[in-house]
Here is the input.
Amino acid sequence: MNVQNAQIVTAFEADTAVLLSCGPALKELSEKLHGKIHFINAPDNAPPGLPRAVLQLDDIILNISLDRVQALIGIPPHISDDINQVLDFTRQMALRLLGPLVPVLPPYLWTGIVIELMFPQIPVSSLSANQLVTPIFD
Here is the structure.
């Protein structure tokens, strides 16, 4: 098993002024982690989940929308095959990224962490056609 990336989502009540309220914390986070902030000029009728600001780091993308903050985190290769280290790393990154933002965000609803597991597969070329279709028809 190998973990390529993790995703952390924190949802909150939709707020059209979320960028104004979390702007200073986002700027501080950007300076601290040496990231670059991109603001997206979204139309007024865009869905609340559409990112309005993106903080781009080397191996992390932090999307801020009107109703959630989403972090996409690349897992370092040296820990990607140890699920316990991956979970610890993801938890530490969640605290590091969301810690400065949570106090200035609208009322909090929930937070979730999703990790993508990759399992090694037997190369298809080494299996016969019967072996390939057996799991489908059994």
